[in-house]
Amino acid sequence: MTETAATVWIPADRLRAEVARLLTAAGLTEADARTVAESMVEASLRGVDSHGVAALGTYLRRLRAGATNPRPQVRIVRSGPAYILVDGDNGLGAIAGTFAMERAIAGCRQTGIFLALCMNNTTLGAAFYYARMAALHGLVGITLSNAPPSMAPWGGRRPLLGTNPLSVAVPRREGEPIILDMATSAAAKSKIYLAREKGTPIPEGWALDPEGRPTTDPEKALKGLLMPLGGPKGYGLSLCIDLLTGALSGGGCMDKVASLHHGLDRGQNVSFLLAAIDPEHFAGQDRFLAEVEEVVAKVHGCPPAAGSPGVFLPGELEARTRQERLERGIPIPAKVAAEIRQEAAAFGMEVDWT
Ligand SMILES: NC(=O)c1ccc[n+]([C@@H]2O[C@H](COP(=O)([O-])OP(=O)(O)OC[C@H]3O[C@@H](n4cnc5c(N)ncnc54)[C@H](O)[C@@H]3O)[C@@H](O)[C@H]2O)c1
How many folded domains does the chain comprise? Predict the structure, then answer.
């Protein structure tokens, strides 16, 4: 995130209350507003700024346009001993996501593994949030989600696949879990927006222009296509995530998922898969956690390669940012505050973030 003099730093607790207040004004119940605010502030705490409080302006715009349902009746459509299928009723994804993961966490204690498929949602934001919920209970958590098309199948030039994110969270004996949390594109779209703002080129391999040619121009990239991470392997990963979410839930895949930002005459129709696994049913909790700590020690004991700033676990740098931001507050750039202020005004709310 670029810090400027116009960035304000707001304590996480205050931001949580403020975001919940604005979402309540936009029509959410107080409980749902608190749930969504929690997920957004947690993303901001970990430095996942694009999917944190910065998304609030977009959410308020969607709620005002009727593109997202402020009062979703989240319901279990089907269930069995180790699974549920949830209809999110076109609400903000954090509402159905939190509902589903809470049930997966409780359910897997009996069955070892519990799978929750959710359909008919607005985006769930940062994928790590739900996987981490499980890990904070000593469980392994998994999140997969589909997203609107921005990548072509490998070798093609028509956008059919989303940057479909995936997260795996593994508990440790103490402290923050190990958390892999990633898009399946070579780079997140937010990084291309940032390059455009700064007027700098993007690295080769991130995007194609609208004619399907490689480009380093962020403007052309945003009109064109994102490239998958790792070539055909990232493409395959994205495709499988789409199938495991959109096809398995019945919500639908590819262009049945709509943009978060444009065409606000319809719901986004995002699907996700959330899983919780209880290690007690497999290696046993003690043995599992001992092995995890052995892996951590080996990673930390690995000598850094030439020029490397160090060797870290997935999510370790974000956990450090979280600690720093718990102490210093969360940085909100003036541009983000201005957008939220403008959207909040449409609901008759004032925002005084100074
Ligand atoms: N909801 C959606 O539709 C959607 C779509 C795409 C992405 N996202 C979210 O966007 C966010 C950003 O995704 P991204 O792919 O840009 O993430 P990223 O590239 O910043 O990080 C990806 C992973 O790499 C790890 N990592 C980075 N540097 C590391 C290092 N030096 N050592 C060890 N591990 C390291 C991170 O901890 C993280 O787990 C995520 O929260 C993701 O869930 C959401």
Answer: 2
